[in-house]
Amino acid sequence: MTTVPLAALPGRPCPIAAALDLVGERWALLVVREIALGATRFGAIVRGTGAPRDRIAARLKALEIAGVVTRVPYQSAPPRDEYHLTESGRALLPVLDALLTWGRTHAVAPDDPDRQVPYRTFSEPEERP
């Protein structure tokens, strides 16, 4: 797992800056969101994020190096992988919940028709009927 030496960070070095250095890029947390929602294959992650394929490939590689995701082969010819959250990646799920709550309250207009969609939380187990 990658860590960030606090002294190497610009400005005021702190754990928030270190965390953002590893997962603060927009597509990184959306990749984590997609995997948490069950999209474990590259194409599904690209579709769910809406990001260019090259950006997602770069984010997956960076997240793997950082120890947030792990790559698991599911096909050998041609080689294909699935991506899964590590313990470190699963520890980000409450962060996604906090961003969801904050975004709904502060980043989305009150009259946006999609604002009240019942978005699934990430840190609580999904309820099954």
TrEMBL record:
Sequence segments annotated as region (Disordered): 107-129
UniProt key word Transcription: yes
Record's compositionally biased regions (Basic and acidic residues): 112-129
SUPFAM superfamilies assigned: Winged helix' DNA-binding domain
PROSITE patterns in the cross-refs: HTH_HXLR
UniProt domain HTH hxlR-type: residue ranges: 14-111
Protein name, entry field: Helix-turn-helix transcriptional regulator
Phylogenetic placement of the source organism: Bacteria, Bacillati, Actinomycetota, Actinomycetes, Mycobacteriales
